[in-house]
Amino acid sequence: FDWSSIATSHLPSSYKTNSRQEEELLQLADHFFQQYAHLCPERKPLFIHPLNECGVQKFVSTTVRPTLLPYPDMYYWSGCASFVCDYLIMEPLQCPITPPSSLYSPTTILKYQRGNCFDFTVLLCSLLIGAGYDAYCVHGYATLEMCSLDQTQELCPRLRKPPEVPEEEDPNKYRIKYPLEPQSKFELQQKAKEEKETEPEQEEETEEEEEEVVMEVGKPKRDPLHGLRVHAWVLVLSGKRKVPETFFINPFTGNPHSTMDECFLGIESIWNHRNYWVNMQDCRKGCKDLSFDLSDPFCWEIMFSESNEPSQLETGSAKEDTDEMVSDPSNTLEQSLLLFQQEKEETVMRFEMPLSWVDRIRVSCREYENPFSQGKKVVLYDKAKLEKWAAYANGDGLVERLTVYADSDRTEELEVKEWFKHREDLLYMREVNKQTQLITDHFRPGHPLLLKAHSYTSLEPETGHTVEFYHTARVDGLWKRFEDATEMTEYFVGREDFLHTRHTDFDEREKKTEKAGSTADANPRPIVQIKEYFHRNPEKPADEDIEERIFMVIDDIIQLTYHLELHDTIASQVVFCRVIGREKREDEIFLSRENTVKYQPWSSEKHKNMLHLYDLLWELREEQKELKQQVRDSEAEMLNILMVRKDEEANIKLSVSMYSTAKRGQEHEATV
To answer: Where in or outside the cell (predicted)?
Structure first.
């Protein structure tokens, strides 16, 4: 992109000229720069007043334009950071070891949707300050990967697992403390001497091994410009907006980083819309040891003093001290900076920072909803690829896709995750296992069928489906169902009868009755047996509270297993079998001691007589009929779910929010 060809004639006059207050500001900045260069000759030049798009020098603090955009996500730092990194195209610095000679306004950067790290940072800082954060632009140094937006060695944020919270163990003060084994102090001293002698040799060996491992894995070699590459990012201090801890934001990715992150190698200066600070701390160990207390004059040299109190030293004494320091080279740099601070406070004590020369930052609804200038954004990670689209860019509502690979070359796919928005079927995520071809769809609450998740390899019936429901919205408390050609398992939650699992086994259909085009309703699968499992009901005795109930439909056997008491080892059981040699008749209950097996050692006398068993068998027969009907209803519900899902996938519809003015405008233009 040729920045020299951009049109500047339409820009406001504040872009092309400087006001009297801005001229005074530039003079003070020049004076500050000269003093800084004299006192710190070994430091790099400061980034203070670069040229703007019209070729006019502008102080960097006046380029920051605090703005709060009228979108809910832009009130939070994460929304601002993701918008900036998605909306702009990254351009590297012309010289990687020096800051740019120009710094364009955020309005121009938004118009052309591209910029370097300084352009990204100023725009993001303007949005964060407008949202109420204590944010600052940072001019410093970073690693090659961060400066070049190379994330191929990093783990994708979508794949990061949340940190596990360790379980707190209650200390037992009454625990017996056993004495430690006695050790010889002389032996420990001798062992420590031997370790010190072998340490240098081990360090050399480990360094050689590390170099070999680096070469084998194929990681990038050491950067010859390590520590010299210039980068800009955002600093957010704790305090405002309830930020608990100070952190960095990389404007290229929008990701937060700790101030101790080793990717940040040093800081030269920081600024916001009110002031400018120079870092006076040692950065040989990166930024992990830096103090971000900007009120500390030994850590940060401020350009315009924020204190209204005049200097305690007179001008004459300050000049005498300056002459003494020039004649005495043994004085430290801190003393020189202290005198410079006193002189500077006298000069700029009453100076106020002029307002920003940048025009108001505006982002239309269409630009906000479609931030990708090239249609989509592709980010490569370690063994992963992340693709992003704007809402409504795809007909199926796809907005994000993550592909996980088995190798670093990204040739063999392992898993694909897709995220959707604005779908009327409320599908928001789909996971595809490329090894097993298993597809899992996830739905938001509100689906007509109360679907929460659906796992399948094909939408054909009886091919292996696992469906999860929002059980709180169902009357029967069903939260999960698995079905294939031979079995069906249902899981329940919060039922009054304490039922938690129902398992049904099916037999193969009769081939004689199968016809071409016949449906599953016309030729149902024979039910072999139905198993039900119940939780413990504390209101019943254990040997009256059923734990497992098995209906062997074909063999005409009913088996009951009761819960155990605390002192029991063998559960009570009742088994009703079919009498051998007797034909089964409808509505007939035949009970004898030959077809009843019972073990209830702790039951009362009433549970041991035949009349009680007869009544129990009669109830079980009726419940078996109801269970068979419930199984058929579950089969019909699964067929209906598959039919609805097929129709939803064949006719995907996207809903348009009443607040999406840009999308509604497009629909209105299409209908006119």
So the answer is: Cytoplasm, Cytoskeleton, Flagellum axoneme
